Amino acid sequence: MRMKKDLKKSALANRTETVDVRATQEIERFLDSAWMERRLSANTIDAYRNDLVSLARWLTGSKVNLVRASRANLLAYIESRVAIGASPHSIARQLSTYRHFYRRLLGEGAVNTDPTAQIILPSVSRALPRSLTEAEVEALLNAPDVQESLGHRDRAMLEVLYATGLRVSELVTLRTRQVNLSQGVLRVSGKGDTERLIPLGEEAVRWLVSFWSGPRLQILGQHSTEYLFPSRHGDFMTRQAFWYIIKRYAQKAGIKQALSPHSLRHAFAAHLLRRGTDLRVVQKLLGHSSLSTTQIYKQVARDQQKDVQVLRHPRARPVKAKAKRAARPRLSAVAANSPKSASTARRRG
């Protein structure tokens, strides 16, 4: 116990250590090459920088340069992270960053060995995302006070988020030129600058049209901006601010489960799959580079289908219903275009 306390104290103290010039230069060179060659997003680059600076500061406290770190140094750093409560997922992400960093140095001949080569990544179980029910989504969407300009903006943002499955970072930085209301589509550049067209659906288009023509101008006042959903200061909203908005409306809607910024994105995918939309269609809409990333939502949709069967089947055990089904679906624009939707509808009938 005393050893853990000492490690925690040491780790916290070393956060304030400055990073030497060479380590800083190597970090920036690595980030530049990662951005140029792998076309990583700004958020991923920031995460890489934070991971490397954190390690460099810790090593500085031990009089070790980042470039000259050994396997023993990295294991000691990991031990200090565990001592202060870092999760296996966080440690695995950091080790992945360090592996990319030292492999680059090894390839350039700056180091003779890769200190991460013999370190095994901790096993991280991939938890299924908890998806909102359609009734919970409906309650969340109805939570904003649309009589106020900011409430109208928030309703439009929630409608677009659920109708398209955008990442929150994509939503808050959405520009007016990316929206084509006459065709009802968005043009979005996601991770790796991959571009995709996403249908909006009638409900989202309706809320966007009403927001664009009135409440948006009221929010801007004397300001002007190219961002579709401006803040009171005429700039785009931060992810943190939107996350606060979601939590506030979830509480107002009486949603008990803990939400994440991607809760509506999860719901978008799970509800489409449950309605019979092809997995590869959902993959393209979400902007996933790998089908395996989208596959996880198939299990979520399957679990929700089991819940429906338990609730509705005459031979099922009686259990308390979680919520009534939403009155009006918002995903029909995509689901109707799925090759499976027609046959699914016939089977359910």
Characteristic key phrases:
349 residues, mainly alpha, hpI Integrase, Chain A, 2 domains, 3-stranded antiparallel sheet, 16 helices, 3 strands, 58% helix, elongated
Please explain how this structure is put together.
The chain is mainly α and 349 residues long. It has two domains: 107 residues, no CATH class; 215 residues, Intergrase catalytic core (hpI Integrase, Chain A, Orthogonal Bundle). The protein has 16 helices and three strands. Strands 1-2-3 form a three-stranded antiparallel sheet, with no helix packed on it. Strand 2 and strand 3 form a beta hairpin. Helix 7 packs antiparallel against helix 9 and helix 7 packs across helix 12. The N terminus and C terminus are likely disordered.
